[in-house]
Amino acid sequence: MADRKKSRIPRPVYERELLRLQAELVKLQEWVRHEGVRLVVVFEGRDAAGKGSTIKRVTEHLNPRVVRIAALPSPTERERTRWYFQRYIEHLPAAGEIVLFDRSWYNRAGVERVMGFCTPEEHRRFLQQCPIFERLLVDDGVLLRKYWFSVSLDEQERRFAARIDDPMRRWKLSPVDLQSVTHWEDYSRAKDDMFVHTDTAESPWHVVESEEKRRGRLNMIAHLLSSVPYHEVSRPAVSLPPRPGPTGYFRPDRRLQTYVPDHAATLLPR
């Protein structure tokens, strides 16, 4: 822990490199849209490992019509009766789209197994079917990237404690999140078992050391960019058209419309 804290990326260095990588992500997005590529990025890892904050940095300057985040809630009673992968298939990208899964079908290998939300038979079937499911995606031309965010027990506890004391982030803590501390070794065994069955040549896992969030974000984004054979797409030059002359339009009286109160004015000294 101490060594990692010593190697903390200075904020000016982090922000400069993050901006450069985000500019490359825009180029990646335009290449995906132009070439009709389907890109799926899976974000998995322990609670408070930094998945959500990394997704925010990835999508910060991207077009939400091209890049979507899939963060599915708990399945409904009807969804529980369907084939397990079915609810995730509905969120896969069409041509020219990127989908970021903020947790994914791997819920079954992690929280569902540890917390008893699935049966041992359902878990066994998942480990058997998952490599086949992902092979079908890859064979059909989907670019699939899977990232596991790794964090220590001490750092996870520190982040949980910070959330408890922060009303802006307290919503991130669910009862299941808090129980992950007491089930640390159970989650470790589940993750190891998951890797044995699903870390395949067609869709390997990429582990992101996320003890230091800045470093983890930069490493993950840089790896994603390096793993996709994108290139800058040339776009036609854009210029504003000339403004036409007046045609006799008069704006209605402002008193006829309801305006938002000027809250910002109350913040200025009088």
UniProtKB/TrEMBL annotation:
Instruction: Please give the Gene3D superfamilies that the UniProt record associates with this protein.
Output: P-loop containing nucleotide triphosphate hydrolases
Claim: Transferase is one of the keywords in the record: yes
Q: Which Pfam families does the record associate with it?
A: PPK2 (PF03976)
Q: Which InterPro entries match?
A: P-loop_NTPase, Polyphosphate_phosphotransfera, PPK2-related, PPK2_PA0141
Q: What is its EC number?
A: 2.7.4.-
**Which keywords, in A-to-Z order, does the entry hold?**
Kinase, Transferase
Show the GO MF annotations: polyphosphate kinase activity
Q: Where is the Polyphosphate kinase-2-related domain positioned along the sequence?
A: 13-235
Taking the record's annotation, the residue ranges forming a coiled coil are none
Q: What does this protein do?
A: Uses inorganic polyphosphate (polyP) as a donor to convert GDP to GTP or ADP to ATP.
Q: Which family does it belong to?
A: Belongs to the polyphosphate kinase 2 (PPK2) family. Class I subfamily.
According to the record's subunit comment, the protein's assembly and interactions are: Homotetramer.
Put simply, this protein is called ADP/GDP-polyphosphate phosphotransferase
Originating species: Amycolatopsis nalaikhensis
Q: Which gene encodes it?
A: ppk2
